[in-house]
Amino acid sequence: KAGVTQTPRYLIKTRGQQVTLSCSPISGHRSVSWYQQTPGQGLQFLFEYFSETQRNKGNFPGRFSGRQFSNSRSEMNVSTLELGDSALYLCASSWGDRGIYGYTFGSGTRLTVV
Amino acid sequence: SQQGEEDPQALSIQEGENATMNCSYKTSINNLQWYRQNSGRGLVHLILIRSNEREKHSGRLRVTLDTSKKSSSLLITASRAADTASYFCATDLRTGANSKLTFGKGITLSVRP
To answer: How far apart are alpha carbons B44 and B37 in whole angstroms?
Structure first.
């Protein structure tokens, strides 16, 4: 059974650009969440999607957005990149509604903004 | 702000010894989860304990939850070099229809061969 797949693994972008990250959850998982991990702030919740609906959103500026498709695959977009957006972005999927059985994380996308 | 606070921040032990890691949190939870992360990679789910449970085992892992003290502990018995990683506790607050995990800063565990 394939795990959570995140693409790309590494990304280097310039300030002001925009970026789209992709996440394919485990087959059958309908809930997808996104987290940002930085050395200073640790792991912070970005958003959660279930059946193409955003159910929860973290405390991030509007430059951060996401969506989920009918096949449960999810994308997140960051517009007008800032140096502080450099981070490991992690996607997680869960089988049970609202992650009641825990989450399976992907290996992440390492974004570097220069 | 962090909901979960792990203690200690770093732990170094000899292979074969037990490792105990603690987590405290501030508000009521539905469940508490422990994850492991190997250097810069994704998180691996270790164990989930619900708010109405007090203790749970999984292989060499034992987790306890004390909701009156708002604290949890993770015990890894007979540690191995491969257990070297960062460990995070995450609380699931689940207010209404929303659910999200709030992570602590993590504990760096080093197991010396």
So the answer is: 6
The mean pLDDT values, 10 residues at a time, for chain B of 113 residues are: 76 97 92 92 93 96 96 97 96 71 92 95
Cβ atoms of residues A70 and A55 within 8 Å: no
Q: What Cα–Cα distance (Å) separates residue A62 from each residue in A46, A52, B16, B88?
A: 11, 19, 49, 28
**Residues making up chain B, counted from first to last:** 113
The dihedral formed by the CA atoms of B81, A37, A47 and B95, expressed in degrees to the nearest 10: 70
> Contacts of residue A90 in chain B, CB cutoff 8 Å?
42-43
SS3 A2: coil
- B45 contacts A4? CB cut-off 8 A: no
Residues of B in contact with A48 (CB under 8 A): 98-100
Inspect the interface and report whether the beta carbons of B43 and A92 lie closer than 8 Å.
yes
